[in-house]
Amino acid sequence: MDDDDLCVGSVIANRTKQEMKDMIGMFINLVLYRMKMEANNSFEYLIRKIQQLSSDVIEHSCLPYQHIINSQDQQNHQVLPSTLFQYESLVSSVTAKNNIESSTIEGNYVLAVYFGRDRSHGNGVTALDLTFTISHDYHARTTECFLDCSIDIFQTQNNVDLLANRFQHMLKQLFSSSSSVIHELIYKLSIVLPTEQEFIHQMNNTDISTSYSWLNTIHECFIQQVQLYSQKLALEYCLIRRKARGNHRCTLPSTI
C-alpha cells in the first residue's frame, strides 16, 4: 500500500433475516473499504465513487472478516485497516426525549440527564490506530464527529487536536464556502490552518535586511569584520588553509 491506497474498516449488522435477528440477536461484521485516492478528480467524484463502493461492499457484507483475512497471502497482510469509520444515527423516540429532565436558565435549555453516546472515552483503550465516528441526531438536527486515537501513534493530545482542526478546516472549505469547492479538484483543498496561513504570509512579507540582518554568509562576515577593524592585521585565506593543514599533519608549514 502507498499513501494513495486507502483501506478503512467499518461495521455492519450482518443479520439478513429479521427472524434470525429476533431469535439470536444482532451480529456485527467488520467490512473493508479499499480504494485509490485520485487527487486530480473532484470531491463530488470521490463521493460518487464511495457510494458505488459502499453498494458493492454491502452486497458482500455476509462474508466474514476473518475469511477475507485468511484468504490473503502473508505478504498482503499490510492491507489490513488501521482506521475504523462509524456512522451513528440517533433517532430516539419521543417518549425517551420526554424522559429527559431539563431546566431552563435565561431561555437556554440545560439537560440534566443525557441518554446517549458516552462522550468521555475515558477507558484508555482503542482497537485501531484511529477510529472516526460521525454521530447524527435526527431530532436535534445536529452532527458531531469523534476521534479515538492511539497514543502510540499520536503521542499527545495536541497532535489529536491538530488533526481535528485540519479536518474541521476542510469541512468549512467544502460546505461553508460560497464557491462550489466540491466541484474543484481534491488537491486544491488545503489543510493549512488560517493561523498557519497568516504566519506564512508574514514570513513572506518580512524585510530580510532588517529583521534577519544577523543571518549573513561567511564572506559577508569577513567583510563586516574588515570594515569594523580596518587597522587590524589580517591573514589571507591561503595562509590560514596552509596553517590548518600543517597542524593537521603535525608538520611545519615550510615542509608542505
UniProtKB/TrEMBL annotation:
Domain Condensation as annotated: residue spans: 3-184
GO cellular component: cytoplasm
Database matches in PANTHER family: FATTY ACID SYNTHASE, NONRIBOSOMAL PEPTIDE SYNTHETASE
Alphabetical list of Gene3D superfamilies matching this protein: Nonribosomal peptide synthetase, condensation domain
Entries under Pfam families matching the protein: Condensation
InterPro entries: Condensation_dom (IPR001242)
Alphabetical GO biological process terms: amino acid activation for nonribosomal peptide biosynthetic process; secondary metabolite biosynthetic process
Protein name: Condensation domain-containing protein
One function term, GO molecular function aspect: catalytic activity
